[in-house]
């Protein structure tokens, strides 16, 4: 799945950038996306920070 960043919550995300979702994780009853961010490492971010562009 590909998502576009619509809310950059830290310096390792770029607003408008397209990222590949490695895995969708459920934490605290909410979806989180594991992506490789601009640092080159994979991290988990809230799904609300992204818009799905390719399911």
General description of the model:
The chain is an all-beta fold and 55 residues long. The protein has no helices and 5 strands. It has strands at 2-5, 18-27, 30-36, 42-46, 50-54. Strands 4-3-2-1-5 form a 5-stranded antiparallel β-sheet, with no helix packed on it. A hairpin with a 5-residue loop joins strand 3 and strand 4 (42-46). The chain is globular. The mean pLDDT is 95.
**What's the gyration radius in Å?**
10 Å
- Biggest β-sheet description: 5 strands, antiparallel
Regions with pLDDT < 50 over 5+ consecutive residues? none
| Helical/strand content category | mainly beta
Count of extended strands: 5
Count of helical stretches: 0
* Overall residue-averaged pLDDT value: 95
- Kindly estimate the percentage of residues that lie in beta strands according to DSSP: over 45%
- Fraction in helix: under 10%
Query: Helix-strand pattern, N to C?
Result: EEEEE
Question: Which sequence of strands runs across the widest sheet?
Answer: 4-3-2-1-5
Overall geometry = globular
Beginning-to-end CA distance, first to last residue: 5 Å
């Amino acid at each position: 799945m590909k998502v576009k960043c619509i809310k950059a919550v830290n310096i390792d995300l770029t607003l408008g950038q397209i990222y590949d979702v490695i895995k969708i994780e459920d934490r605290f009853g909410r979806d989180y996306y594991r992506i490789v961010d601009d640092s080159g490492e994979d991290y988990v971010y809230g799904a609300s920070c992204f818009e799905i562009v390719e399911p």
